[in-house]
Amino acid sequence: MVVDLPEWTALAPALFVGIFALILFALDSIRREPVSHRLLAGTAAFGSLLAFLSAVWYLVVGVGDPGERGVMHLFQDTLVVDQMGLFFAAVITAVTTMVIIASYDYLGEHAHRGEFYSLVLLASTGMVMMAFANSLVTIFVALELASLPSYALVAFLKTNRGSVEGGLKYFLIGALSSAILIYGISLIYGVTGSLQLEAVAAGLTGEHTSLLALGVLMLIGGIAFKTASVPFHFWAPDAYVGAPAPVAAFLSSASKAAGFVIAFRIFIEAFPLETMLAMGIDWVLVFQVLAVVTMTLGNVAAATQSEVKRMLAYSSIGHAGYALIALAALTNAGPYNELVLGAGMMHLLVYGFMNTGAFLFIAMVEYWDIGRCFDDLNGLAKQAPIASIAMTILLFNLAGLPIGGGFLTKYFLFAGAVSAGFWWLAAIGALNSALSLYYYSRVVKAMWIEEPTESTQIESYPLGLYAMLILAAVVTVVALPAFGPIAETAMSAAEILLG
Amino acid sequence: MWIEALVLATLLAAGIVFLAPDRVAPRLAFVLSLIPLVGSLWMFLNFDGSGNALREGSTIAFQNRVEWFQLGDLYTLNWHVGLDGISMPLVVLSTILTTLAIVSAWTPIEERQSQFYGLMLFLEAALIGVFVALDFFVWFVFWEAVLIPMYLLIGIWGGPRRKYAAIKFFVYTNIASLVMFIGFVALVFGLGDAVTTFDLTDVAQALTETEPDAVGWMDASTLKAAAFAALFIGFAVKVPVVPFHTWLPDAHVEAPSPVSVLLAGVLLKMGTYALLRFNFTMLADQAMRFAEIIAAVAVISVIYGALLALAQRDLKRIVAYSSVSSMGYVILGLMALTIYGVGGATFQMLSHGLISGLLFMIVGVIYHETHTRMVSDISGLATQMPITVGAFVAGGFAYMGLPLMSGFAAEFFVFLGSFGSPHLPASHIVTPMAMFGIVIVAGYLLWAMQQTLFGEFDLATDYNPREAQLHDLAPIAVLLALIIILGVAPEVAFEMIRDATAPIIPGGDM
Known about the structure:
The structure holds 2 protein chains of 2 kinds. By secondary structure, chain A is mostly helical. Chain A has a domain at 286-499. In chain A, 74% of the residues lie in helices and 1% in strands. Chain A has helices spanning 12-30, 37-61, 83-107, 113-132, 136-154, 161-192, 197-202, 209-227, 235-242, 245-270, 273-278, 283-303, 308-328, 337-368, 380-383, 385-399, 405-419, 423-448, 463-478, 483-498; strands at 72-74, 79-81. Chain A has a two-stranded antiparallel ribbon. In chain A, a hairpin with a 4-residue loop joins strand 1 (72-74) and strand 2 (79-81). In chain A, helix 13 packs antiparallel against helix 18 (423-448). By secondary structure, chain B is mainly alpha-helical. Chain B has 19 helices and 4 strands. Chain B has helices at residues 2-19, 25-45, 87-104, 113-132, 136-157, 162-191, 200-209, 220-238, 247-254, 257-282, 284-289, 291-310, 315-336, 339-370, 386-400, 406-418, 427-453, 470-488, 491-501; strands at residues 61-71, 75-83, 378-379, 458-459. A two-stranded antiparallel ribbon of chain B has the order 1-2. In chain B, a hairpin with a 3-residue loop joins strand 1 and strand 2. The interface between A and B is medium-sized, with 36 and 33 residues.
C-alpha cells in the first residue's frame, strides 16, 4: 500500500528536532522531582536520530531530486526541500546526535541538563531550517532560531569566567551581525521588491546597483558571522574555548555547515553570476578575498597557539576558508561549477565528523581534567591508546593526509579551483594545508612521543564520549573507501541547485 | 581478491596486536605476521602474470579493478590492484622482512610492546599496499599511510634524538610527497580528455599515445619535463639520492634496529620502485632527456655516499650511509634503460633489502650486548660472539659483492646493463666510475670489521657481551640463507623481473 504523505512531512528532519525540543521542555518542567539524566539525554538523542534517519531516508528514496520524487516547494516557496537541504540536514542532525550522546557523560551532575538538551535541539531546529529556507525572511528567522540558543549554550557554565565571556562575545558580535544582515535584507527588498530567493533574482533589473551591492556585502557579513569567516570570526576562538567542549563541537561543525548552506542558496539562487556580473557586482571576487584571508589567518593563528582547544578553534576558521572556495571558484556558467560546489558540500560533511570528533576528544580531556595545553597531553597514548588513535586519525584527516575522507574532499576543492582557472586559490590552499600538518602533528607528538610530565591517572572511561569519538574517527576513515555515495549525492545536489 | 585479503589480514592483525596485552604482543605479532608471509609466498608460487603492469598486452596477476567512485562525468577513480614481476618480489620482500624484524625486536623492545608490534604490522599493510596499487589515488593513500607508523616508531622507541629525527623524516618525506603529487596531477590535467581516470595503466598508455595539452604557461614538453622533475625530486627524497639524503642518517641512527631493518630494507625501495614505475616507465622519454643529470646524480650518490660511510665512526651510520651508495647503483641501472640495467636495478632493490636488513640486525644485536656502536669502543668481538661476528663478516662480503651472494649478482647485472648502454651518456666512463664505489665499500667495511671484530678483545663500556640468543640469530640466519639463494640462483626472482622490465626498454631488446 502506498500512502502519499502530505507535503509538509518533507520537513520531517526539522520537525523531529523541533518537536523533541518541546517534549524535553515539557518533561523537564511538568514533574516536580528531577527527571533522570538518562531519560533526558535518551529523548534528545532519539529525537535527533529520528531527524537524521528521516533526512537520510528522504535522500535515499529520492526526495529533492527532480528526476525522482521532485523538489518540494512549501509555503509559497519560502521553504524548499531539495537534495542540498537534505544533505545538510543530515550533516547537522548527525552532529547533533553525536554531541548529545557525548554530552551525557560531559554534563554529569550539572544542574540544568533538561535545558541544555532542549537548547541543543532548538538550535539544531534552526540550523535544519536554514538548510531548507528559501526566502530571505525565513533564512533570517531560522538563523536567529539557531543563534539564540547557541549564545545560551556557550555561556552554559555560568560560574566559569571563560564560558560567560565567550557567550557574551558571541552574543554581541552575533547581535551586530544580525543587525547588519537584516539591514542588508531590507536593502535588497528595497531594490528587488521581493524576499523569496527566485523572486529576488527575477527582480534584478539593473537599477540601484550600488544599493544592491551594499545589500549583498551586508549579507556576506551575516554569512561570515555564521561560518566564522573573516571579518566576523573574532567571536569564534573565545566562544569555542569558553564553551563546554561538546557545544564547541556543535557550533564549529553544525553551525558552520548551516551558515554555508544559506550562503550557497542565497548566492546561487538569488544572485546569479551572469546577471550580477552584468551589473558590475562581482561577489565571487569578495569570496575569493575572504577565502584566502580566512584560510591563511586561521592556519597561521592556529600554528601559534599553546592551547589545543584554541588551536582547534582557529583550525576551524581555516577550514571555513577552504569551504569558501566552493563559492570563490565559481565562474559564469562554468563547466566546473558543479565540481566546485559539490566539493564544498563533501568537505563540510567530512569536516562535520572530523571536527566534531576532535572537539569531543577535547571534551574527554576536560572530563579527565588533564589541562588544555599541548604539554598537558604528553604521554596520553599510554593511558588512553584508543582515544589517542581516534584523535590521531582525526587530526591527520583535518590536515588532509590520505587516511580518510578529508584528503579527497580537500583534493577536489583544490582540483575544482584549478579546473576553473583559479590555480592560485588552490596553491594558497595547498600551502595552508601543508602548514596545518605542523600544528596538528604537535598534538600527535605530544600524545605519542613525549613522556608524561606528571603522572595523572585516568580513572574512568566515559562510554558515550568514547563511543562518539570512535564513531567520528571510523566515519572519517570509512568515508575514504565509501566515498561514492557522498560524492554522488553532493554532485547531484550541486547540479540541482545550479539548475 | 587475494590481494585484498592479504592487506586486510595484515590490517586486522595490526588491530589485534595493538589491543593485546604487552605480555603476549611479541609472540602474537610473530604468529599473525606469518599469515601475510605465507599468503605472499603462496602468491609468489602461483604467480601467473607476464609483462609489465603499465604496458598493454600484459597479464597482471591477481588483478582486481572495480570502480571506487565517480565525480559527475569528470573523474572516475578505481580501486585497482595487481602484481607484475616487479612488484611481486617486493611484496615478498616486505612480508619476509617484517616477520624477521618482528622477531629481531623481541630482545631490544621492552616497553609499550603491543603498540610497537601493532604499528609494525600496520606499516607492513601499508607497504604491501604501495606495491600492489595500480591506481594513483589508491597508491598515494598507501604511500602516505606508510609515513604515520614510521614517524611514531622512530619517535617513540628511538634513541636520544628520536624526536628530532622523527619530525625531520616526517617533514622531509611529506613535502616530497606534496611535490610529487602536484607533479603527477598536473600531468594528468595536461592529458585532458585522453584519460579520465587516475589509473596508472591508463595514464601510462595515454602518455605513449598522446602529448599532453598546454597547462597554464607550460607547453606540452615543459609540462612533461616539470612533471618528471617533480616526481623525480619527490622520489629522490625517499630513495634517497644525494643531495636529498640528509634525513636518512638521522632517522637510521635514532630508529630502533628492527625499524631500521624495515626503513632500509623496504621503505627506501618505495622510492626506487616509484622511480621505476613513474619516471622510467611512464616518462622514459624525459628520463633520456635528462640522462646526463640523472647519471651524474647516480654516480655522485654512489661515490659520495660511500665516502660519507668511510668517514663515519658509528657502525649504524656506516651501514646507513652505505645505503645511499647502494641506491645509487639502482638509479644507474634504471637510467641505463637496458634489460640488465633495469632488471639489475630491480634485483638490487631485493638484494639490498636483504643485505642491509641483515647488517642492521647484526648492528642491533651487537649494540644490545655492548651498549655502544662506536668502532673505536669495540675490538675483538669475535672471541665473545663468534656466530654473530661470522654473520657480520658474511653480510659485509655480500655488501662488497662476493660472488655467489645476491650483492654480486645485482651489481653484476647493473654494470652489465649500464656498460655500453645507448641511453646512458658516456657509459664507458660512468660505469667504471660507479664501480669504483665498490672499492670504497670494501675499504670501509673491511676497516670497520677489522677494528671491531678481530684482535684482542676490549670494550670501552662496562658490559660483558655474550653470544646472542637463538631468536636473535634465527632471523639473521634466514636472511643469510636468502642472500645466498639469490646469489646462487638469481633466476628465482630475476626471471620474473626480467619479464616485467623488458617491455619498458625503449627500442626493444637490448
